[in-house]
Amino acid sequence: MLPLIRSMSSHPLSRRGFLSVGALSGLGLGLADFLAIRESAAAENLYETPPQVAKSVIHIFLPGGLSAQESFDPKPYAPIEYRGELRAIPTKITGESFSELLPKTAQLADKLTVVRSLTHGEAAHERGQHNMMTYYRPSPALQFPSMGSVVSHEQGPRNNLPGYICVPNAPNPYASSGYLSSAYAPFALGDAPERAGFKVRDLNHPGGIDHSRAMRRRQALEIVNRQFTSQTTSDDVHAMSSFYERAFDLIDSPAAREAFNLEAEEGKVRDRYGRNQAGQRMLMARRLVEAGARFVTLSYGGWDHHQQVTTNMRRNMPAFDQGYAALIADLEERGLLGETLVLVSSEFGRTPKINADGGRDHWSKVFSVVLAGGGTKRGAVVGSSGPTASDPEETPISPEDLATTIYHQLGIPANKELMSPGGRPVEIVNGGKIRPELLG
Amino acid sequence: MNRAWQHLAFIALSFAISWGFSLAWAADGAEAEKENASKDPSSPAETPKFVDLTIYPSEIHLNHAAAKQQAIAVARRTDGISVDVTSLVEWKCKADNAAEPLAKWADGRVQPLRDGNTTLVARLDQPSLDQTNSDSLSASVPVYVQGATINKEVSFRHDVMPIFLRAGCNAGGCHGSSRGKDGFQLSLFGYDPAGDYFRLTRERATRRLNRALPDDSLLLEKCIGAVPHTGGKRFEKESEYYSTLHNWVSAGAPSDLADAPTVESLQLYPPEATMELDDAQQFVALATYSDGNVRDVTDLALFLSSDSTVASIDPQGRCVAGVRGEAFVMARFDTHTVGSPVLTLPTESIYQPTETPPANYIDELVDAKLNTLRIPPSERSSDAEFLRRVTIDLAGRLPEVAELEAFLANEAPDKRALAIDRLIDTPEFRKLWTLHWANLLMVRSENNRVDYKAMQLYFEWIAEQIQQNRPLDEFVHELLTASGPTFVAPAGNFYQVEPLAAKTAENVAQAFLGIRVQCAQCHNHPFDRWTMEDYYGFAAFFSQVGRKPGEDYREMIVFDRGFGETNHPVDGKPRPPQTLGGEPTELAKENRVDRRKVAADWITSPENPYFATNLGNRFWAHFFGVGIVEPVDDVRVSNPPSNQALYDALGSKLIEYDFDFTRLVRDICNSNAYQRASSTTEANQHDRRNFAYARTRRIPAEVLLDCVSQATGAEEKLPGLPLGARATQVADGKANHYFLKTFGRSKRDTVCACEARAEPTLSQALHLMNGATVHGKINQGKLIESMLEEGAQPQEVARRLYLRCLSREPSDAELAALDKLIAEDPKPRDELQDVFWALLNSREFLFNH
């Protein structure tokens, strides 16, 4: 396993600022004693590690602010200015409907948990994205890590695949490692899977370099690095070292490298997901998760429909519907849905009323997210946004609750404290609750 | 001096012992033990004597019957530590000649009794060190009581509104949200008092306030949690806040919006504090109003700390010291934020100040700060380390082997200064700074807006300014006032890259003043002084910029339209132009001038408090990897410089040098601070911002690519440039290049300094290992082949490669270890290529250290 790199500024001593170890030795206390003392003093943060149900997460992020009314939370009985132009269609959950643009997803609604009452107070894109990637409200003093980075920090890589992967790139700046070392930042594919000739670069030895030369290069690198890396305390140098180790692991593992090879999927599987942005990114995510990636974030489309929400949704939604339905069905067929939690989210929702441009504006008071697999409930609608999608009418769910529940499924205690620069401990999630409504 | 240090050492030792024990107890989990072990200021054996006593505030004004002023007493010890002795001193309001006192001291506060002038006295008794007699310190401040019988009306503007800020009611997550919360909206952080008054008193009729039965007002019931409130209970029914709101509603909820005085300034006391671990210090905040009144707003201000691990502060203004360092403790009231620096010193270390004489004014200021914080600096870098560092920083390349060898052989005492002068004179130095400005000024082509040719001319114009060493104030002035066709006056592209007036104003503020005013577009800045008036006033300078197509379809003409305003969204009225922090300026109708000229004059003036310091700090950050204010473009009260004197000095030097930045760069590079070793010591490894050692920095994308090309002797084909050009010369921010993108080249989408990134990533490691850059260039440059051809022995080849890449000789251990990898083959090309690969992949190569 890779060494976990701590931010260099995380003080090796407690933040209470005990005196230096040197002064202790005068009292006959050695470093080991000191650390033992510190261990017992650190008990102020008590947490219990829950059993792990979900082994991986696929996070489908829809940037811009998905309209719930035009997707998972239609309001067929509301006046036209609230309802919009799209019809509602029945789903596999009796009495619940989705937008007409989600026919395939509606057919497997019995595998999903639709949360219609997510709520937070941040209606600006950056702040909303911050809330929905880090599950913290933005702070001027501290950069928070994204959920993917926390998972990578807590659980490390598996099967030599990076712990946290973004397809194709980090969807926003908050998808990164925040106050944690940049060693926990996402690995970005750098190329879009839907593109013809898609390839994740630099995974193979360059031409002409066989195994023995590759090994010699590594030995030589080890010799050259030794002096410098042993002397420096720079966090960035150590982060770079850990990336090299990870890169070696990845290169040495044909299975891990093969996970990035989308060409290996049969043509009909690629067709099933849809040969478009949504489909191929979701297929890529499935391949990665199947091979052992812990946390894959993918983004699709742009959903900031201040104008012509109907037209725009007609353009964007069908590819999502096809890809998402294929993903859920495919995971189920492969027996992976039980251990893979699929989260569909956006930074916020959109205003109850259609505006003068036929669009909807930002609305963070209530919006929908959808969970599937990883021990979440199968076939449930949680919460309600009332008759006009204006307020959470019942069972409001905060981003903190959502995150705490997901972390719980992953076997990560959300109240555990991580160390931020200056030795300030920060809980993974600030005061969220595990919501049994979401769990099977 | 010596005796003082011995004395300190004794104290430090005695503390160490008592702390050692307290730590052992803490193992039992008993937090309370630590409290007991902390210093008791009255215990003479451990505590140095107090040498002076000060009361804050320095004068007290009480102007109505219910007025109160909290006062604190701070005593300074012989070792420079300041101690809050408010609870240890004896307080007294002098009776003077009057029969009865004019004011009384109760509950830590002075309260008025009768009109007149009196004095508040504090006396601190301390046993002297020889225990025979006690000596005492005393201090006094004048107290002015005027209007002791006046019952002041509750002010909506100054009593009620601040409660909404203090209790968090108008925060963004609550009623300050743009759509309010649970049906009730307040303006975010109170930017719109009139709107708030309207919503409280008129919206939904009498629902929120019940003038007949004030207790039943929803406002009052919600605050104390008497009825369900999503935000919970904000304060107690017995609190001052409740009674203020109650009194206001009882009085009929009067509005004083029309004639309320404004808050002119805010003061925070004590103005500075030097504390030891777990010491506490109460802070007091005072507001001065435009009508001359001064008022204690400690109960109404919001307190925050720039670093709560160093000094935390609670809502009542009580600050507690934590780990060693410096923090800024701030109070926010109305739109004002002020701060006091708090220094937390370790109790245990015995510190010897550095004896290296300062190289220039920079060292005097850096060393002074390190001495205050008791952080010992690292030693001086070796010559080889220095030359590599300074060559990368100044010329964006590695030292040539011959250059290095000549430098090492040179015995002149001023050889470092000469090397700096030589590097500053190179064209590479100019290219590097052209790149910096191109990043900052967003030189990039944009579909349908900035044509490639216009962009190219813009880049060349910047390069020319830097080439000619144009004073930076003139450079920025010309840029801001540029008019005419963009092919002829390429600086006009600054207004082409960003067409919106408000956004242009934001860019100008951030790029040239380091101020982010973005927040104030929609509400008053939550952490700084900027209000919406400032924002729209500043934007008004750029609201009259006209743009029209030129003769060539790729060209735009930028001109002064002479009309166009920015409207303040709250009242919908145009704001007159207003410099940041200045007063609105009415520009004359006749003989009108381009508004941009007025703005440019103000920005580039030596009197401008932000311009020169911000520039100086940007240069500093280039050489130290971190600014004195960090981020360099986020200057605000709540983000203070880590060394104020140094920050100011760089700005005033730049002005003194007539904005010739090369002279400032020369000073920085010649300082000991820059020339320190990058290795840290036990005692300074935790320093982040005080420049005790040279920070190890990943080499920026463009420079790193140039270094790989240089080391391998293989030229790079870059977009839009002939073979052999340097990556620093790529003009277009939009140009696509995998290496540059992966290593964090600035995309130039915004003026933010954060656009260029240097964090390592997995993709970077993979690319260096397997990508075409390193492997391809080793093959392409054929260096090893030619060295072997010349008859060089493998060991000699390895040695030369070390010098090329790392600017140092390999150690014997390294050579021996590498030797084992190299086979018996007299021309071990593959093996040496692998060594070359390892050198270019080494951390030592990728980082500037």
UniProtKB/TrEMBL annotation, chain A:
The record's section on InterPro entries has: Alkaline_phosphatase_core_sf, DUF1501, TAT_signal
| TM region positions | none
What SUPFAM superfamilies does the entry give? Answer: Alkaline phosphatase-like (SSF53649)
Pfam family of this protein, just one? DUF1501
Q: What is this protein called?
A: DUF1501 domain-containing protein
- The organism of origin for this protein: Adhaeretor mobilis
TrEMBL record, chain B:
User: Which top-rank group of organisms is this from?
Assistant: Bacteria
Boundaries of every DUF1553 domain copy? 595-821
Keyword annotations: Signal
Q: Where is the signal peptide?
A: 1-26
- DUF1549 domain residues: 362-545
Show the InterPro entries listed in the entry. Answer: DUF1549, DUF1553
The molecule here is called Uncharacterized protein
